[in-house]
């Protein structure tokens, strides 16, 4: 299978695949996301899933990986992750601009984070727990979930009784 690092910056997309990097529109990104033969490395899978829907074969999320590698960090944005994990910009031939350079830096950041997850034995946690969970949470945010209204009302009434009882007990003790 082919592999693609899909990078988004201010609504623009760039893709790094092998030795190539190119800018593309949302239609092309959607086609890449829906192609089962391409494994994807992204930033914020849940957000992308909510935006594009049928994303298949995501094998890496730099946002989740950054969190797993350093759960107490103040930020997980791509610039900070690149700096923290020592990502470097390769020599880019041809036309280049900020998004092309940042996409290449993102690809190297993903590689560094991947190695860190391997080293700390957390890669399985990312691929088997965090990525599937991100999809489920994205679905829940998009579709919502059912609520047992009667059950919630009954619980509310029960809690209100307990609160009144506790307040009554406090008044008796004073």
Write a compact overview of the structure shown.
This protein has 174 residues and is α/β, with parallel strands linked by helices. 57% of the residues lie in helices and 16% in strands.
Structural features:
alpha/beta; 174 residues; five-stranded mixed sheet
Written overview of the protein:
With 174 residues, this protein is α/β, with parallel strands linked by helices. It is built from 7 helices and 5 strands; from the N terminus they run βββαβαβααααα. The chain has a 5-stranded mixed sheet with strand order 3-2-1-4-5, with helices on both faces. α2 (45-52) links the parallel β4 (38-42) and β5 (58-61). α2 runs parallel beside α6 (123-143). The longest helix has 25 residues, at 149-173. The radius of gyration is 22 Å and the shape is elongated. The mean pLDDT is 91.
Largest sheet: 5 strands, mixed
Number of helices: 7
Tally the beta strands: 5
Sequence stretches where pLDDT stays below 50 over 5 or more residues: none
What portion of residues is helical?
55-70%
Strand order, biggest sheet?
A: 3-2-1-4-5
């Amino acid at each position: 299978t082919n592999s693609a690092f899909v990078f988004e910056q201010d609504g623009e997309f760039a893709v790094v695949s092998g030795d190539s990097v190119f800018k593309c529109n949302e239609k092309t990104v959607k086609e890449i996301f829906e192609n089962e033969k391409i494994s994807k490395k992204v930033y914020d899978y849940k957000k992308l899933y909510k935006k594009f829907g049928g994303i298949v074969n995501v094998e890496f999320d730099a946002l989740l990986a950054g969190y797993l590698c350093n759960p107490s960090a103040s930020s997980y944005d791509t610039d900070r992750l690149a700096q923290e994990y020592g990502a470097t910009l390769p020599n880019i031939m041809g036309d280049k601009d900020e998004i092309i350079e940042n996409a290449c830096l993102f690809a190297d950041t993903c590689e560094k984070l991947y190695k860190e997850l391997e080293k700390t034995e957390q890669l399985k946690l990312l691929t088997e727990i965090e990525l599937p969970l991100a999809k489920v949470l994205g679905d829940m945010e998009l579709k919502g979930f059912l609520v047992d209204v009667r059950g919630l009302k009954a619980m509310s009434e029960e809690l209100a009784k307990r609160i009144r009882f506790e307040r009554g007990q406090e008044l008796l003790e004073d």
